[in-house]
Amino acid sequence: MDTNFDMNEHPHTRQNILTGEWVLVSPHRTKRPWQGKVESLPADNRPQHDPACYLCAGNERADGSRNPEYTTNFAFTNDYSALLPDTPVGEIAIDGLLKAESQSGICRVIAFSPRHDLTLAELDLEAIKGIIQLWAEEFKTLSENPSIKHIQIFENKGELMGCSNPHPHGQIWAQNSIPLEIHKETINQKKYFQVNGRSLLTDYLKVELKEQKRIVFENDNFVVLVPFWAVWPYETMIISKRHVRSILEFTDKEQKDLASALKNITVRYDNLFEVSFPYSAGMHQMPVNDGDHAEWHWHMHFYPPLLRSATIKKFMVGYEMLGNPQRDITPEAAAETLRNLSDIHYKSKKLS
Question: What b/e readout covers 119-148, taking b as 16+ CB neighbours within 10 angstroms?
Answer without folding.
Answer: bbbbbeeebbbbbbbbbbebbeebbebeeb
